[in-house]
C-alpha cells in the first residue's frame, strides 16, 4: 500500500519549520520598523547625551586636510548654538588601542565668537576590540576638559606614557592613563588629541 507523504512525520516537521520561519520573518520585519532609529534621531541622542539637553544640530563639512593624523581620524562634525553660545560636536576615532583596536569618542568644543576656546565634554561612542572600558570612570573623562585655553593653544596633548608616546606628542603632554587598560587609554587619548589638533594644531 502506497504511503501518503502528507501524513508522514517528516512532512509535518517541514510544514512546522516553514510556518515558524514565516512567522519569525514577519516578526523581524515588524520589529525592524518599530526599533529603527533614523540618523537624525541617533544624532539627537548623541547631542543630548554629550551636551546634557536636546538641541538641534547641523552637520558640517570636515576639513579633510586636518581630518586624519597618525593618532586618529575625524569621522563626523556637527554644530549647534544654545543660549548664545556656539558649539561643535566632533566624532573622532583614536588608533592604537588594545589589540591594535580603536575607540570612537564624542568631543564637545565650545567657541567664543569664531574661536575654539575649550573642551566642554568628552564621551565614548563605541570601540573595537577593547575589553576593559568599564574601568574608565568620570574622573578620567573630566581630565580631558581640564586643559585651559592657553594650554590648548600651546599644543598640549594627552599621552599614555613613555612606552606609547607618539613622536608628534610634545614633552609637555598630560599623562592620562588607567592602570590595567593602558592601550585602551592610548586609543582614547588619540581620539581626543585628533580633535585638539583639528582645532588648535595650526596655532602651534
Provide a quick synopsis of the model:
By secondary structure, this protein is of the alpha+beta class. It contains five helices and seven strands; from the N terminus they run H-H-E-E-E-E-E-H-H-E-E-H. The strands form two sheets. It has a five-stranded antiparallel β-sheet.
Q: What's the arrangement of strands in the largest beta sheet?
A: 1-2-3-4-5
As a percent range, the share of strand residues is: 25-35%
Number of helices: 5
Q: Provide the structure class.
A: alpha+beta
Give the overall shape.
Answer: elongated
Count up the domains: 1
Cα gyration radius (Å): 24 Å
Indicate the low-confidence ranges by residue numbers: none
Distance between the termini: 93 Å
The largest sheet is: 5 strands, antiparallel
What is the arithmetic mean of pLDDT?
88
Helix content: 25-40%
Helix and strand sequence: HHEEEEEHHEEH
- Number of β-strand runs: 7
Amino acid at each position: 500500500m502506497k504511503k501518503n507523504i502528507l501524513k508522514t512525520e517528516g512532512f509535518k516537521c517541514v510544514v512546522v519549520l516553514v510556518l515558524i520561519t514565516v512567522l519569525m520573518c514577519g516578526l523581524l520585519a515588524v520589529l525592524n520598523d518599530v526599533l529603527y532609529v533614523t540618523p537624525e534621531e541617533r544624532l539627537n541622542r548623541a547631542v543630548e547625551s554629550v551636551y546634557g539637553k536636546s538641541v538641534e544640530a547641523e552637520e558640517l563639512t570636515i576639513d579633510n586636510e586636518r581630518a586624519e593624523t597618525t593618532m586618529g581620524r575625524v569621522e563626523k562634525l556637527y554644530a549647534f548654538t544654545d543660549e548664545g553660545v556656539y558649539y561643535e560636536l566632533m566624532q573622532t576615532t583614536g588608533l592604537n588601542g588594545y589589540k591594535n583596536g580603536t575607540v570612537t569618542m564624542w568631543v564637545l568644543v565650545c567657541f567664543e565668537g569664531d574661536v575654539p576656546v575649550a573642551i566642554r565634554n568628552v564621551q565614548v561612542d563605541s570601540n573595537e576590540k577593547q575589553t576593559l572600558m568599564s574601568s574608565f570612570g568620570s574622573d578620567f573623562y573630566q581630565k580631558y576638559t581640564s586643559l585651559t585655553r592657553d594650554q590648548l593653544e600651546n599644543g598640549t596633548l594627552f599621552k599614555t606614557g613613555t612606552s606609547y608616546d607618539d613622536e608628534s606628542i610634545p614633552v609637555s603632554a598630560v599623562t592620562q592613563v588607567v592602570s590595567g587598560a593602558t592601550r585602551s587609554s592610548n586609543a582614547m587619548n588619540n581620539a581626543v588629541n585628533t580633535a585638539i589638533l583639528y582645532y588648535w594644531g595650526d596655532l602651534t
